[in-house]
Amino acid sequence: MELDVLTLFPEWFDWFARQRHVANALAAGSSLQLLSLREHSPLSGAQVDDMPFGGGAGMVLRLDVVEAALRARYRIDPVELPSRRRVIALAPGGRVLDDALVDELAAEPTLTLLCGRYEGFDERIVEHFCSDVISIGRYVLSGGELAAMVVCDAVLRKLPGALGDERSAVEESFSAALEGNPEYPHYTRPAEHRGWRVPEILLSGHHARIEQWRRERSRERGERASITERPNPGADGTGGARDRPPRQ
Ligand code: ADE
């Protein structure tokens, strides 16, 4: 997987690239390339943003700056890009990232992630240079960098070689192996602490029954999540923390 990230803060990703599962994915043949929007700015003083037409607070990432950065990286007119590779603008209003979308992205040979700042992008960037707009949730971050890291993290850990044990990615929350449900609870030593005992079945060594127990717990969690995942829990006086079933 070839991952390119266009950002005003490439140095933010130094720490990210050093994390073990990311480093493993990179060692296994993936690449993470950072492109500085400021470095590619064709404007004086390395300007990257401007005031919004029509007025309003905040600054908007300029179309010509993003165009110059994309052109420098791919050596073609960026309007050609969306038909050749996924170019993803990160913005709060985009398609919300979930496991199905992560699988879709992980199957791509290349991804380009474009991080906005300030009030966001000139809309023509999205219209003409991007194939997708992705959000990591319905809240506003100060920019797309953390969202890009979330996308890279979720995608890279799906690739062969990123995780120590390949089973971790197969049987995890929301995977097909768990019928899209959250993962079952895990326990480790000590088997008892302050009277809190690990479920007896997990100590039995009976693999088929353990498997069945785990499926049941996973399904239960899925049912609970569908109760608590109302569109806006708490806003109508119901579905808030107090109405939730107790945590397992
Ligand atoms: N940029 C700002 N907020 C964002 C969000 N929630 N998701 C993706 N990109 C963003």
Overview of the structural elements:
With 248 residues, the chain is of the alpha/beta class. It has two domains: 2-156, SPOUT methyltransferase, trefoil knot domain (Alpha/beta knot, 3-Layer(aba) Sandwich), CATH 3.40.1280; 171-243, Orthogonal Bundle (Trp Operon Repressor, Chain A), CATH 1.10.1270.20. 32% of the residues lie in helices and 17% in strands. The protein contains eight helices and nine strands. The chain has a five-stranded parallel β-sheet with strand order 2-1-6-5-7, sandwiched between helices. The chain has a two-stranded antiparallel sheet with strand order 3-4. Strands 8-9 form a two-stranded antiparallel sheet. A hairpin with a 2-residue loop joins strand 8 (192-193) and strand 9. The longest helix is centred in the last third of the chain and has 22 residues, at 207-228. The protein is elongated, with a radius of gyration of 22 Å. It starts with a strand and ends in a 20-residue tail after the last helix. Mean pLDDT is 90; it is low at 233-243. Residues 90-92, 116, 135-137, 139-141, 143-144, 147 line the site of adenine.
Can you tag this structure with a few keywords?
single chain, 248 residues, alpha/beta, Alpha/beta knot, Trp Operon Repressor, Chain A, five-stranded parallel sheet, two-stranded antiparallel ribbon, 8 helices, 32% helix
Record the SSE blueprint.
Layout: E1 2-7, H1 12-18, H2 20-27, E2 31-36, E3 49-50, E4 60-61, H3 63-74, E5 86-96, H4 99-106, E6 110-115, H5 123-129, E7 132-135, H6 145-156, H7 167-170, E8 192-193, E9 196-197, H8 207-228
Parallel strand pairs: 1-2, 1-6, 5-6, 5-7
Antiparallel strand pairs: 3-4, 8-9
The site of adenine (ADE) has 13 residues, from strand 5.
